[in-house]
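Contributing new complexes? Match this layout with FFO.
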Amino acid sequence: MTELIEDNTGWRRALRREMVARRAGLDDAAHAALSARIVGHLGASLPVPRIAAFCWPIKHEPDVRAIVAHWAAAGAQAALPVVVAENAALAFRIWESGTTLAPDRYGIPTPVSGDWVTPDLILLPLNGFDAAGYRLGYGGGYFDRTLAALSPRPLAVGVGFEVNRLASIRPESHDQRLDWIVTEAGAFRPSAA
Ligand SMILES: Nc1nc2c(c(=O)[nH]1)N(C=O)[C@@H](CNc1ccc(C(=O)N[C@@H](CCC(=O)O)C(=O)O)cc1)CN2
Ligand SMILES: Nc1ncnc2c1ncn2[C@@H]1O[C@H](COP(=O)(O)OP(=O)(O)OP(=O)(O)O)[C@@H](O)[C@H]1O
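Output block (do not edit by hand):
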């Protein structure tokens, strides 16, 4: 039977669902253990940033909040992304323990107050990723627009689980390449491809 060639958007939508379901299959103990290994690799491989953006984990994303505390002890600040408009770059607000979070339009816990800042490092959760350093997100294009808009570009560090590694996410011209991919297996600088 001839394989149906869907357009990239439809292909990505189906893949995104499959990738989220795959990591949701990790039980709580496995999820916590893999997240802790990612945090260990982040601490061992990356320089302490000035302002680290991270994501409040949703849908079984890796939970790397511990690296934020580790970097804060070394003088870093932390920030969370804020969706200010659809089809636009993200903005970032300082997060400290005690910062009030409220669900945004997607239900993601987001700061309702705090200084607006520009991070020099962004931790991006990976629904899917490939060895060339491309990321499959939730389809909003938010991080691609954000990385394209910021100058100097922050260090883009993808965090994901090996179950979500793909041969290729079929990158398009708007897809921003990650500087690092960190999984439970280690911290990788994507190979030239
Ligand atoms: N925890 C976390 N926070 C984050 C992100 C993230 O990846 N993880 N983001 C990273 O950018 C931003 C939010 N990005 C989002 C982009 C799209 C959708 C969304 O709901 N999309 C639709 C349609 C998807 C599709 O076309 O298949 C959906 O899921 O129904 C949600 C969040 C900011 N905050
Ligand atoms: N720099 C950009 N300028 C304009 N449009 C963009 C840009 N980057 C991405 N887009 C648009 O955003 C849409 C979604 O992109 P993509 O599927 O790569 O999202 P994603 O990386 O999975 O999402 P997210 O980062 O929100 O999790 C694409 O259709 C693309 O046209």
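Reviewers usually confirm one structural detail per submission. For this one: The pocket of adenosine-5'-triphosphate (ligand 2) is lined by residues 12, 135-145, 148, 174-175 (CB under 6 Å).
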